[in-house]
Amino acid sequence: FPNMVSLYFCGLWIFPIILFILYKFVTNLKQYRRPDELGLPPGPRPWPVIGNLNLLGHLPHHSLSDLAKQYGHIMFLRLGSVPTVVISSPAMAREFLKTHDLVFANRPATSFGKYVAYDRKDVGYAPYGEYWRQMRKLCTIELFTVKRTESFKSVREEEVSAMLRSILLESEQGIHCVNVKQSLSSLTQNIVCRMFSSRTYSDDELSGGMVFREMVSEISAVAGAFCIGDYIPFLDWLDLQGLRRRMRAVDKVFDGFAEKVIDEHINCRREKERGQEEQGVKDIVDVLLNMAESESQGKEMKITRVHIKAIIMDILSAGVETTSTTLEWAISELIRNPYVMEKAQQEIDLVAGRHRLLKQSDVANCEYLRCIVKETFRLHPPVPLLLPHESMRACSVNGYYIPPRTILFVNIWAMGRDDSIWDDPLQFKPERFIGKKIDVQGQDFDLLPFGTGRRGCPGISMGISVIELALAELIHCFDWHMEDELNMDDVFGLTVPKKFPLYARPSWRLSFEHFSISNAHKHG
């Protein structure tokens, strides 16, 4: 009898679910036809319920690149119930992100935006509209200007010097191979933290026993995950992957951290007001607090603590792992291609010699080094599919019908490896950029590591300045070697880091042997 009761109540749950799935299948039977039969871009026939989610695999940027070889540079997928277009050529990128930029200026609602990005109150995940325009204006006019980037020059130079000293000390202490990934992660975390808060937090323990660097890593991990509930909404409540639980957990830790940062700044400002001390270079939180307290704020948007926390979230998620991952790939490629490293070292030696460290201003005179950075972006873009766009209305692109609320992925990883765009695309050849006016600011659709148009990354200049200086100093100060075979496999996420962290053996190559963080740049 108890078993019969259990089966009865079990049936009460299962039977409505089966009916609901059948109802969705019958009423949406049209969507399971081949896309080209509906005037949509070509693509594979979707399965009921899951659509084409099964085709993504563990490396979606690889899988989508392979599918593009069959269906073309514009293809239509149905990820769960969500209509999706994937493009993988400069011509298509120009069509969608320039010609039809306004139509695709929206961001889709995601679990990350809801649970971690303060219900889309940040810049990166905010829906297109007046709020987003005000936040974007705040970033471009106040936070990430050329002048602001220049004001943090000493921060970049000091932290790069500290990293070099740490690597040198490890090698002198007999550590055979240095954990390059860890050194680069510490560097980018310290620079980013000093930019928004004038101090570092790398080893600070936060609420829940999570260390700061673990929090940053977890934010990046959940931001880049394909959440099933975003694509099959009626399964969202089940949290099958445990992502919603992880998002809420890391959001709680981050919110406590951000509240502490804001409170520290407010207390510090009060102390300085009482002591009438002059403040040096303002960090980003100071700038935002000044705006929040200003009576001249526009009526369109009042800066609150939520806005400040959301911007800190964007800076951490967009500025740490993307930069360190790009640098790790660059060093890996230089180890694989020692003649490229040697050529870059010769150029840097001509600019700075071997008796001092480089300054940020020296980088402008290192053309080949900058070509290395571009070549790294081509083969290893920091965000392989860019952040997704969403169409705000139906439109026609390249003769194909694009439904409203279609998600757009731009597979710039595939674009960088397309032999119809690049000669010898799988070869690391910085020379391909010499004498060519191809930049990474979003104007050249062959190379879009930071996106373009209305949704392009507003912090491009800051990111590139860190990458160029750090890479230049790493190969200026050290020769890099590996005794084992270098594995170049990647893993998918918001960024595409190496599957196995880079360990390499550094050999000091400058004329002076020892330096401290404070006097490293006095040699020049």
Automatic annotation (TrEMBL):
PROSITE patterns attached to this UniProt entry: CYTOCHROME_P450 (PS00086)
Keywords: Heme, Iron, Membrane, Metal-binding, Monooxygenase, Oxidoreductase, Taxol biosynthesis, Transmembrane, Transmembrane helix
Residues annotated as transmembrane: 6-26
Residues binding heme, per UniProt: 457
GO MF annotations, alphabetized: heme binding; iron ion binding; monooxygenase activity; oxidoreductase activity, acting on paired donors, with incorporation or reduction of molecular oxygen
Pfam assignment, any one: p450
GO biological process: paclitaxel biosynthetic process; secondary metabolite biosynthetic process
Cited InterPro entries: Cyt_P450, Cyt_P450_CS, Cyt_P450_E_grp-I, Cyt_P450_sf
Gene3D superfamilies per UniProt: Cytochrome P450
Keyword Cell membrane tagged: no
Cofactor: heme
Domain of life: Eukaryota
Pathway this chain belongs to: Alkaloid biosynthesis; taxol biosynthesis
PANTHER family: CYTOCHROME P450 98A9, OS09G0441700 PROTEIN
Family statement drawn from the similarity comment of this UniProt entry: Belongs to the cytochrome P450 family.
Name of the protein in question: Cytochrome P450
Lineage of origin: Eukaryota, Viridiplantae, Streptophyta, Embryophyta, Tracheophyta
